[in-house]
Specification:
Layout (H helix, E strand, L loop, with lengths): L1 H21 E4 L2 E5 L4 E7 L5 E6 L2 E7 L3 E5 L3 E5 L7 E7 L8 E7 L4 E10 L3 E4 L4 E4 L3 E11 L4 E6 L2 E2 L5 E8 L2 E11 L4 E8 L4 E11 L6 H49 L15 E4 L2 E5 L5 H10 L5 E3 L5 H4 L14 E3 L6
Parallel strand pairs: 2-10, 12-19
Antiparallel strand pairs: 1-3, 3-8, 4-5, 4-9, 5-6, 7-8, 9-10, 11-13, 13-17, 14-15, 14-18, 16-17, 18-19, 20-21, 22-23
Length: 355
């Protein structure tokens, strides 16, 4: 059994490789927009009689090697593109592709040659619009752009471009909802406004892509002096406090020095007042009495006490001498010439020295 199985597997592989070498189909996969045309080429390297084409499980066209196309449905056509070699080549085309054409496209050669299958995907391009439009934003503020998509099939791949460069996927979020046979979606981009930029929203399908462009204008933020002013003010206040502390310190120091000088001055004054005097008091000195005469105003003369005067007269002290008083004639109303009255008085004068 095992040997028989191996022989059968080898036969199938050889048969398949032979079929592959005798029939080829190009392309094996195609994606087109609804309403467009698509073509497939079948190349046969051996003689054949009948070729059929099936789209989506439905026989749509039959070709005879001798007569060409003998049967076809609307929108399906074929033409001979052979170059004279054995077997030949045919091009099968679908005109005005519809979504019902989506699926396998099979080319079959009647007999032992077999078939080849290609895949057809019919897509539908919808609309795209950045509803937020152009924006003007202050620097370092958040800017939000909303991209609206409608009528796409299948749901497209959405991306954002900033100045032509792909934006990080962390900056935007995209959601789609199925609406009948198509998809509608929204993509929101949130970014920090740093500089002016070109903002683009792109929807991509294998058969087509579309792009919408808007512009971001950034208004520069005026220089913020708040921080600098706060720093300068803080340093200024600190400097003023330091200067105030130094000034208070010197004032207190100066006050203490003044108080110290005053204390020392008081102590010196007390010491001088308490020092004994070297001289003695002259107990014999007394002020003269005031007398008045008819010739003039009162005169003042020095007078000694009787005891001192007696002692001095007895000792005949040469330091005691008499000088005549001098009166002002005009004041007394008399002349020094004969006829005038001038009373000459002799008074005793003494020199007193107090040590």
């Amino acid at each position: 059994m095992d040997a028989m199985y191996k022989y059968m597997l080898a036969f199938l592989l050889l048969f398949g490789s032979g079929v592959g070498a005798q029939l080829s189909l190009d392309p094996l996969s195609a994606a087109v927009l609804r309403g467009s045309n698509v073509s497939f080429k079948a190349n046969v390297t051996v003689e054949w009689n009948v070729m059929t084409w099936n789209v989506g499980g439905l026989l749509v066209l039959t070709i005879l090697s001798t007569n060409g196309v003998i049967q076809s449905l609307p929108r399906y056509v074929a033409r001979n593109i052979s170059t004279g070699s054995a077997g030949g080549a045919w091009e099968f085309s679908i005109v005005d592709v519809q979504k019902s054409d989506t699926g396998p496209v099979v080319c079959t050669i009647e007999g032992w040659i077999g078939f080849k299958t290609a895949t057809l995907q019919v897509q539908e391009q919808g609309t795209i619009q950045i509803s937020s439009g152009n924006q003007t934003v202050n620097q370092d503020q958040q800017a939000e752009f909303r991209c609206e998509l409608s009528g796409w099939f299948p749901a497209p791949e959405v991306s954002w471009l900033l100045d032509g460069q792909p934006a990080s996927t962390s900056l935007y979020n995209t959601t789609f909802q199925e609406q009948g046979s198509t998809f509608n979606g929204t993509s929101v981009l949130t970014m920090k406004a740093v500089r002016d930029a070109t903002v683009q929203c792109r929807a991509f399908l294998s058969a087509a892509n579309d792009l919408q462009t808007v512009y971001l204008s950034v208004v520069p933020t005026p220089t913020d002096w708040t921080v600098l002013i706060a720093v300068v003010l803080s340093f200024s206040i600190a400097a003023l406090l330091v200067l105030l502390i130094i000034l208070i310190f010197f004032c207190i120091r100066r006050k203490k020095e003044k108080e110290k000088e005053l204390r020392e001055g008081r102590l010196q004054g007390r010491a001088v007042a308490a020092r004994p005097r070297n001289g003695t008091i002259n107990l014999g000195f007394a002020m003269d009495d005031r007398t008045s005469t008819d010739q003039g105003p009162a005169r003042t003369h020095a007078r000694m006490t009787p005891s001192v005067e007696s002692d001095l007269s007895q000792n005949n002290d040469p330091r005691i001498y008499q000088i005549p008083p001098v009166d002002n004639p005009a004041r007394n109303g008399a002349n020094d010439f004969p006829g005038g009255e001038n009373v000459m008085e002799y008074r005793k004068h003494r020199h007193l020295t107090h040590v």
